[in-house]
Design brief:
elongated; 4 helices; 3-stranded antiparallel beta sheet; alpha+beta; 44% helix
């Protein structure tokens, strides 16, 4: 007897129950989930690797430049029998070396502790978009009347839901590190369609 289909159905049921339990405390009595997704571990790991690679690519040449500037600084500040014309440049060499050294050290911190995703779960309900962190706490939401255009960017890609009111000071709603983001975009756009553009007023001319 093949038990794989049964095991797959059990995993699907556990996943549905888990997702329901995550969202239940945050849903209103008349609110239901239309779409939800958690961040992808594979996508997150790829982004962490990319951040570390960028940090190394900045750190290595920075250390070389710092070493070259320090050599120039020591040469310019070294005592000589005659007046050293480069002595006036010594403070500038040191200042540049210190600034680039700070940049290099910051890259070490970025390598050791790359930026982690803030949200772990996203959902579109009948009333809004909501995002939860890994602990299940609500960290962002956007009411349905405020949902505007959805921008797509990056190599993954990521989604950014803009506010319908362009003058609003409220932050946009990012959706990052999920699988099938374009599918999510289509569902959100279908659920919260943009209002029709106002038609130009017809100008009638007297006979």
């Amino acid at each position: 007897i093949d038990s794989h289909p049964h095991s797959h159905s059990q995993r699907s049921m556990v996943k549905r129950l888990y997702m329901t339990s995550v969202w239940t405390p945050h849903l209103h009595s008349d609110e239901r989930i239309i779409w939800s997704a958690g961040i992808s571990a594979k996508v997150v790991l790829a982004d962490l690797a990319r951040q570390r690679l960028i940090a190394i690519l900045i750190f290595l040449p920075s250390t070389i430049v710092v070493a070259m500037l320090m050599v120039a600084f020591m040469g310019a500040s070294a005592p000589t029998p005659m007046i050293n014309p480069n002595a006036i440049l010594a403070p500038m060499y040191f200042a540049f070396a210190a600034a680039i050294a700070i940049l290099a050290i910051s890259q070490l911190f970025k390598f050791a502790r790359p930026r982690q995703p803030e949200a772990a779960h996203y959902a579109a309900t009948t009333a809004r978009l909501i995002a939860l962190d890994a602990s299940g706490a609500l960290i962002a939401e956007m009411p349905a009347p405020e949902i505007g255009e959805i921008m797509v960017g990056g190599s993954r890609p990521d989604l950014v839901v803009l506010r319908r009111d362009e003058d609003s000071q409220a932050a946009a709603f990012p959706i990052r590190f999920i699988e099938r983001p374009l599918e999510a975009k289509a569902i959100i756009e279908e659920t919260f369609p943009s209002p029709p553009a106002p038609e130009a007023a017809l100008v009638s001319t007297p006979p």
